[in-house]
Amino acid sequence: MDFTVERFATDTEMSLVVRLRGELLLTAAHELTNEIQRLLGTPERNLILDFAGVERADSSGVAAIVESLRAASRAGASLRLRNLHGQLRELLELANLGDLAVDESASAAVPTPVIETIGSAALEARERILELAYLHLQSLYWTFVGPLRGRRLREGEVSRQIVAMGLDALPIVGMIMFLMGLILALQAAYQLRRFGASIYIADMVAIALTREIGPLLTAILLAGRTGSAITAEIGTMVVTEEVDALRTMGIHPVRFLVAPKLLALVISLPCLVVLADIVGVAGGTVFATIGLGIPFETYMNRTIESVYFSDLFAGLVKSLVFAIIIVQVGAHRGFRIRGGAEGVGAATTLSVVLSLFFIVLTDLIFTALFYAAR
Amino acid sequence: MPPAESSSSAPVVSVRGLRVSYGDRLVLPGIDLDVARGEVLVILGPSGCGKSTLLKAMVGLLRPDAGEVLVNGRNVATMESNEYDRFVRSIGVLYQGGALFNSMTILENVALPLREHTSMDERTIVTIARIKLALVGLSKAETLLPSELSGGMRKRAGIARALALDPPLLFLDELSAGLDPIIAAGLDDLVVRLNHALACTMIVVSHELLSVFSIATRIAIMREGRLVALGTPDELRAATDPWISAFVARRHSRDAASQSWLEPFLVGPDK
C-alpha cells in the first residue's frame, strides 16, 4: 500500500490529502493507522483520505478507517473520506459503532475506589448470607416439617438420592480412608518409634480418625462429589427454565429439588463417616501388623480402649452439619445461576470452594467447643 | 369472590402501568394491556423487546417495580402463597425450550401436576396424561425422555403438560421459535384447535410473523419495552405507522437517523 500525502489549499483552509493506492488489507491497515496518527501530530487540522486508488479492503481496513476517525475526533481534527465506493463503503456502513468521540478503552479502565469496592462486596456478602439463611429455613421446613403436614416428598426420590450420594460414593470414600489410615499410622510410627512407644499408633490413628479426619475428609470428598452435582443440576434447571416451570406449576422448587437431597445426605453422610472410621482403622492395622509386627489382637485392644463413644458421636453430629452445608451451599449456588452454561461452570467451582470453607469453619467451632467442654 | 370474575365481559388479565427492570436495566417502562376472555392474544415484537419479561411478570415470576397484573381482578404480585398456589393451578405455561424435567419420561412430565395437585388414583392420572398427549399428537412418545425428542415434540409435550390441569388461561412463550415452518404451522393449528375445543384464553409470545396472523384474535406489538400497537390482524395490516407496517410486512426498517452514520465524513466528488 502506498500513501501519497499532498498539501491542498482552498480559499479558506489548508488540507492534507492522503491518497491511498493498492490493497487495504491486514498490514496495510496498520500502516494507515500509523500514518494518520503521525499526520495528526502535525499542525494540520484538515485531513482528507482519498480512496480512489484502493482496489480491495477487508475488515482490518474498515477497522483502520474507524480507528482513524476516532483518533481524529479525539485530536479535535477533521478527517474526511473521499471517493469511498462499492464494497468498502458498505462495509463501513455496517460497522456503525456509535459515537466516535467516546473512547471505550479509556472509559472502561476507570478504577473503582477501594472503599466502594469493599463496601459493595460487604453488601453483596450480607445479601448472599440472608438468602442462604432463607433457603436454609425453607429446606429444613420442606424436609422435616412439610411431610408431617401432608406435603410428602417425591416418591422414590429420597432413595434414589441415597443411592447416588451415598452408595455410589462408597468405593472412593473407602479407598481414600484406607490410604489415610495407612498414612496416619506411618506418620505416627515415625515419631513414636523413637520413644519405643509404637503401640500407641493404635490410639493415634483411632482418635485422629474418629474425632477429626473421618468426618472432615468424608465431607470434603462429598462436597466435591455431591455439592458440585447439586449446583450443576439445579443451575441447569434454572437456565432451561425448569425451575420457573415448577413455580408456575405450584410446586415449590425447594421442596421438589432440595428437600429430597437434604434428607438423603443427612442419612448418607453419617453412614459414610462410620464406614470411613472403620476402613481407616483397618488401614492403620494393616501397616501396624504387617509393617511393624504388632500382634493384631494387641492392636485391636488398644484401638477399642482408646476410642470413646463421645468422640464417635461428636464426629457423627459434625457430619450432620456438614451434610446440611453441602446441600444448601450447593443448592443456593445453583438457584443463583446467571448466564447460561458458562455460569453453571463458574457456580459449580464456587459452590465447592464455599462448601469447603464452611465445613472447615464449622469443624473449628466444633473442636473449640469440644475443647472448652473438657 | 370478586365481582369481576362473574362478568364475562371483564378482562381476564389486566396489566396496569407495569414497570419491570433487571437491576439497573429498565426493560418495561410501563405497559397497559387487557386480555379478554376466550381470545388468543399474540404479543409480537423483535427479540429483546421485553415480550418474555412481560409474560414472566404476568405469571408472577418477576416482581414489578411499579404497576400491577390483575388476573380475574386479583393482583398476582401481592398474592399470599396459598392464593398464588391456587392461581398457578388455574394457568398453564409453555416455556421457550419446553422446560420438561429431564429425568422423567414425557408421560411422567404431564402427570406431575396431576400428582401434585389432585388426589386422583394412579390409573386416572395416567389416563388423563395420555389424553393430553393425544391432544398434541404425542401418544406414541409417552415413554421417551425429553432428551430423545425433537424441538417441536418438546414444545408439544410442554403444551400437554401446561394443559394437564385444564387451565382456563394459557401462556405460551415463543411458540414456534427455532422450528421449521411446517412444524411451526402444525403448532399454530394446534393452538387454534385447542382455543376452540377448550374455550381457554391464550396469551402467546412470538417473534414469528408467519404464524401470528393465522392464530391471533388480537395482536399486541412491542418495541423496546413499550406497546406500540394493539388490534386485530386486519387493523394491523391497515396500520399507517411506518415501523409497524414495515414490521408487519416483514421488512427491516432502518431509522432515518441511522441511515448513514458515514454521511458527515464524506467529502469530494462522490458526495
How many distinct beta strands of chain A? 4
Helix content of chain B: 25-40%
State the low-pLDDT regions of chain A, or none: none
The biggest beta sheet of chain A is recorded as: 4 strands, mixed
| Cα-based radius of gyration of chain A, to the nearest Å | 34 Å
**H/E element string of chain A?**
EEHEHEHHHHHHHHHHH
Bulk shape of chain B: globular
Structural class call of chain B reads alpha/beta
- Average of per-residue pLDDT values of chain B: 83
Largest interface: A-B, 25 and 32 residues
Number of DSSP helices of chain B?
Answer: 10
What does this 3D model show about the protein?
The complex is a heterodimer of chains A (374) and B (271). With 374 residues, chain A is α/β, with parallel strands linked by helices. Chain A has 2 domains: 111 residues, STAS domain (Transcription Regulator spoIIAA); 244 residues, no CATH class. Chain A contains 13 helices and 4 strands. In chain A, a hairpin with a 4-residue loop joins strand 1 and strand 2. In chain A, helix 5 crosses helix 10, helix 8 packs antiparallel against helix 10 and helix 8 runs antiparallel to helix 13. The N and C termini of chain A lie far apart (86 Å). Chain B has 271 residues and is α/β, with parallel strands linked by helices. Chain B has a domain of 70 residues. Chain B is built from 10 helices and 11 strands. In chain B, a hairpin with a 2-residue loop joins strand 1 and strand 2. In chain B, helix 4 crosses helix 5 and helix 5 crosses helix 6. Chain B is globular, with a radius of gyration of 21 Å. The interface between A and B is medium-sized, with 25 and 32 residues. Strand 4 of chain A pairs parallel with strand 11 of chain B.
